[in-house]
Amino acid sequence: MFMNRLILTGAVVFVGLAAALPGAASAAGPHGHPAAAVELTLDNGQKWQTDEVLRTAMGQIRDAVDASLPPIHEGRYSVAELSTLGDWVQEQVDYVVANCKLPEDADLQLHLVLTQVLDGVGIMKGAGGQEQGAATIVQALNAYGEHFDHPDWRPLAHE
Question: By three-state DSSP, how is residue 73 classified?
């Protein structure tokens, strides 16, 4: 547990430093969505293994975010609702960090995804950052699905 938190802290610091470098994270993807500051890799061309804790929590995060996207896009989510969603996502990430047991290399890759999810939560809970934060979380969840072996994972659409 301590090691997972230490690794997550290191990943957060690394991503923060990368974002502070001129142009490191300023590039935007389609529709003005943020580009990933750090690129994930596959495990020698294969998706990284997962465990039940990870699959359950990530599936729940995915479903909650998916259900929230229409009201977020329509501006119908209040600041309190966004805060509640963000807090809930944070709790799920904390649960994964404390309970997920992956090999070290897979764990390091996972923490890149989790850091981006938490970045999205922070943006989403900020003033006027609803759609930008949601886009960051969607991007992280889709990257998770592309890089981790999670049967029946469905990517999220975000326009």
Answer: helix
